[in-house]
Amino acid sequence: MQRAAADLGRFITFEGGEGAGKSTQAGILANRLTRAGRKVLATREPGGSPAAEEIREALLFGRVRQLGPLAEAVLFSVARADHVEHSIGGALQQGMWVVCDRFLDSTRAYQGATAGVPKPLINALERLTLGGLLPDITFILDIPAEEGLARAAARAEGGAPDRFEGQELILHERVRRAFLDIAEEEPERCIVIDASQPEAMVAEDVWEAVLERLHP
Ligand code: TYD
To answer: CA-CA 20 to 30 A from 147: which of 22, 96, 129, 138?
Structure first.
């Protein structure tokens, strides 16, 4: 879906690894924008529309993993296309501010850079499913993998010990690197935020960038 010139809405996404605080920060920003008088759609991926929520179940809890990273990339992309068609696209056309927890950069980072789906395939999927739609701002919440995993473990009940396994740490370091590489490639769109700061300071950094770039 191409952004029409008449679209008045703004599109902001949050990306990052586990324990970076994306959901919290997306929620804080959505509230701030609402208080500033904007109409806001707060949404997340995978999911965000009824069909995409079903695909989410299959991706996160079903058997899709067995099909390998390319199949996962395709399904995340199909879910995203539906999310855009049935939710994000309409909201933007109505002039709403869309705040989305994860979007296309997660597919680039997890299925692409980390799981090894070649970049041309990821690019082709983006062209097919998004047709050039990109967020106005993408916040990359950056946190050392160890710190992020520790935070996530503190949140999860009883799941703590195995989250620190070496393999997982290496994987999270790779995801972190992948997001930082995306930010380097697209500095106009991506803003890296130090997510190891206290929550309120992260929120302040996010808000300042939104004020400066998008004038809500
Ligand atoms: P979720 O429960 O939303 O967790 P988080 O709080 O980390 O966002 O699970 C989303 C998981 O799906 C997360 O591990 C990242 C992964 N994912 C991909 O691998 N590719 C994608 O395109 C998206 C949107 C998510």
So the answer is: 138
Over residues 30-40, the pLDDT tens digits come to 999 999 999 99
| Rounded Cα gap, residues 50 and 43, in angstroms | 12
State in Å: Cα 60 to ligand 1 middle: 8
User: What pLDDT is recorded for position 62?
Assistant: 84
Number of independent structural domains in the chain: 1
Candidate from 15, 65, 102, 140 with most ligand 1 atoms within 8 A of CB, to mutate: 102
Look at residue 2 and tell me if it is in a domain. no
Chain segment 68-95, per-residue pLDDT in tens: 999 999 999 999 999 999 999 999 999 9
Alpha-helical runs (H) found in the chain: 22-35, 50-61, 69-83, 89-93, 104-106, 119-130, 145-155, 166-185, 199-214
185 within some domain: yes
pTM of the model: 0.94
User: Distance, CA 106 to ligand 1 centroid (Å)?
Assistant: 7
What single-letter amino acid sits at 202? Answer: V
Q: Output the average pLDDT for the chain.
A: 92
| Ranges of residues in the chain whose predicted pLDDT is under 50 | 5-6, 160-165
In what order do the strands lie in the sheet containing 97-101?
40-44, 97-101, 10-16, 137-142, 190-194
Question: What range does the domain containing 155 cover?
Answer: 10-214
Q: Is 175 part of any domain? A: yes
> Would 23 be classed as within a structural domain?
yes
